[in-house]
Fold these 2 entries.
Entry 1:
Amino acid sequence: MKVILVNGSPHKNGCTNRALEEIQMQLVKEGVDSEIFWIGTSVQGCIGCFRCGQTGKCVFDDKVGEFLNLAKSADAFVFGSAVYYGSATGSITSFMDRVFFSGTGYMEDKPVASVVSCRRGGASEAFAQLNMYYMMNNMPVVSSQYWNQVHGFTPEDVEQDAEGLQTMRTLAINMAWLLKGIEAGREKGLARPKRETWVATNFIR
Ligand SMILES: Cc1cc2nc3c(=O)[nH]c(=O)nc-3n(C[C@H](O)[C@H](O)[C@H](O)COP(=O)(O)O)c2cc1C
């Protein structure tokens, strides 16, 4: 069982990373593997060319492709972002637009959670923004004892956010529990759900 923890902050070793490390430490205790994946400082946005629908992959060969290669064999995901103006960062938004548009098949049916880091405000808005991707991709969203947020300007600040860090540990415990439940179900022959073909109706037709 492996969880990919995506750091969507431009700071490789900042507050978002510290939150993900707390999840990682708890996952180790739960016997679940994980890897922190940093998206870097700039990610090309989706250009809406729809080529991925024909070829199965994005026209841009960058961190998105690297991530989707890992995602194929991963069992679960956590997407983390710093809060910029009450929203997720531009980079993680570009990253997730392209991940979910070109690679939804690698994400479907796998547990997922969001984590946000802010100095003071806007965490709920950014958290809700990230959760939008999962809710239309058949992914079980893992919760914690509170909305998954930490507060700080530096990782040292986050160190003092005892409740934020506890929220991360609880998230990891809940994630591990769900993953073990899914594995136990699979061993008993419980298959992935079969769904109807998507009926896409635009408002105008
Ligand atoms: C452009 C920019 C916008 C920001 N906007 C907010 C904000 O709306 N609310 C907030 O509390 N912090 C805001 N911050 C602070 C960061 O979200 C906060 O320090 C975060 O924990 C940094 O995480 P990181 O170290 O992983 O990058 C902003 C920082 C930058 C650079």
Note: The pocket of flavin mononucleotide is lined by residues 9, 11, 14-16, 82-86, 117-122, 152-153 (CB under 6 Å).
Entry 2:
Amino acid sequence: MSKTTIPEEEYAYPGSTGCPGCGANLVMRYLLKGLGERTVISIPACCWAVMPGYWPSHCLKVPLVYCAFEATGASISGIRAALDMRGERDVTVVGFAGDGGTVDIGLQALSGAAERQTDAVYVMYDNEAYMNTGIQRSGATPWGAWTTTTPVDESRGFKQEPKKNVMAIMEAHGIPYAATVSVGHPEDFVKKVRKARDVRGLRFIHALSPCPPGWRMNPMKTIEVARLAVDTRIFPLYEIDEGVLAITRRGKGKPVSEYLSLQGRFGHLTPENTAEIQKVIDARFEALEARAARKNLSPSFTQLA
Ligand SMILES: Cc1ncc(C[n+]2csc(CCOP(=O)(O)OP(=O)(O)O)c2C)c(N)n1
Ligand code: SF4
Ligand SMILES: [Mg+2]
């Protein structure tokens, strides 16, 4: 029997107030397993601002600093500066925000932190909408999805715009490390977090987080859906390490219909819509593979220039 490389220590205890089957719960759990106890986390408004529980107790073994919705990038920069003044260089500073708090309202603060190369790990847990306030569409909601602000009716239809490519946005800042992770592949997840922990500068982790109420799915299927996201290549697992891209799991290349059909938010899609999505996935994965095969440096990776 092969031995797991995932540490046994727990830093996220039972007792979070997340929904049954919440993918974001597992994102926090695996993140902290990778980082260990010498960690400080800043969390803006999002589900995870509520999930730790009620003050003065919370379910995490590490200190939390809550910040305003748009301010995570600025918050982690301040925490880092304060820890540096105290000589606490061994503490990992983490920004832990949702997709809305990252690709929409928090983007300028994150961009500033990346440009300054703030020494911190920024994690975007991506449940693909503003879930905490009632499933409103975000810039990370995929094309075709139902949300409460993209209802499926004759006047407006489902979401008509593609998902923002946050990895490309972060790569364009020339940061030293960026990776996608999945709660369906914990070993890959923890390995990347460990790598990110040991790099200096701003590191970015993009974690897909299935959300049963928001995705209109069975809470028992969280891991199955997370794995299907990788196997259908709608969410490929890769890293960009010092400007060089590597795919860490190719996935099985299953039809995307297997992923979509488990989620009510896509229940209205026609076979033509699904074929359109498949076409985009195939083209994107081909481009990713071509880039990985070239092993060349990202044009935006600039250590000194
Ligand atoms: C400036 C500001 N605008 C709006 C809100 C209300 N608000 C709180 S959480 C949230 C949704 C956050 O979405 P996301 O970042 O995707 O995290 P999730 O809730 O999905 O975990 C919103 C709109 C707020 N707290 N502050
Ligand atoms: S709404 Fe979604 S992300 Fe928020 S706690 Fe529930 S399952 Fe988790
Ligand atoms: Mg969200």
Note: The chain has one domain: 23-294.
